[in-house]
Design goal:
Number of strands: 0
Number of helices: 7
Strand content: under 5%
Shape: extended
Radius of gyration: 29 Å
Length: 243
């Protein structure tokens, strides 16, 4: 038999899940309760993580031991709050300037390495390794490399606007459209699969918590939510006809 706190956690999880999914019917007070709880708990968790993982170990403790190196980034970060005060809002420019410059310096090399260099490397792979015996695996690898390189050329032809799209350029750009559609479809399918995996996880928990071990949390709370909808719709105030 699960512990009392596990049963209570199951009831809370089922209730909040049903409250959030109630938005599929329409906007209602139960959804607003779950929404505000989610945002409040999320902000509280983020604040305590910032305090105990950043401020105390990286600012307070070094300064308390006489290490003044965190003082400059601390003041730059603190200057961001100045934007809420019109008279000294200009001070926040220094913090934003440092933040944008430092962030760009970190993001640009990573983006070039992953989105640019890696893409070029994947499209210029050799069809066959020099001196390697011919096998079906090597043939399939060569076909795959040729397909990727050909698809890249066709997609580039589609975005090449300096020459009129007619003749061979037109045919290549038409093939490039198919490659783009395949990419968009695969990306969308991967996104949908990820979202459905989250949905399946919630449904699995709802099924698990509907057993007697958890005091039938799911059917009881589902009936309570339906009853609330009935009462709320029955006694809700009617808007004036002129509105």
């Amino acid at each position: 038999m699960p512990h009392f706190w596990m049963v209570l956690g199951a009831w809370i999880a089922v209730g909040l899940t049903l409250f959030l999914y109630s938005f599929l019917y329409k906007d209602n007070p139960l959804f607003k309760v779950a929404e505000h709880l989610y945002l409040g708990v999320g902000m509280g968790w983020l604040f305590q993580q910032t305090v105990f993982s950043v401020w105390i170990p990286k600012v307070y403790e070094p300064l308390s031991h006489g290490n003044l190196s965190p003082l400059v980034p601390f003041l730059l970060g603190l200057s961001l709050i100045a934007q809420f005060f019109p008279k000294i809002s200009w001070v926040s420019r220094y913090g934003f300037t440092f933040l944008m410059g430092y962030g760009a310096g970190l993001a640009i090399p990573v983006s070039l390495a992953t989105d640019f260099v890696a893409q070029i490397e994947g499209s210029i792979r050799p069809l066959f390794a020099a001196g390697a015996p011919f096998t079906m695996a090597a043939a399939w690898q060569g076909f795959n490399a040729l397909l990727v390189a050909g698809g890249l050329v066709c997609v580039l032809c589609y975005f090449f606007f300096s020459v009129e799209h007619k003749g061979a350029i037109k045919k290549a750009s038409d093939v490039g459209i198919y490659f783009l559609m395949l990419y968009f479809g695969a990306t969308f399918g991967n996104t949908v699969m990820g979202r459905f995996s989250l949905l399946y996880g919630r449904f699995d928990d709802l099924y698990k918590f509907s057993s007697s071990e958890y005091r039938y949390a799911t059917p009881i709370l589902l009936a309570a939510v339906i009853g609330f909808y009935f009462v709320h719709s029955r006694f809700a105030k009617q808007e004036p006809a002129g509105n």
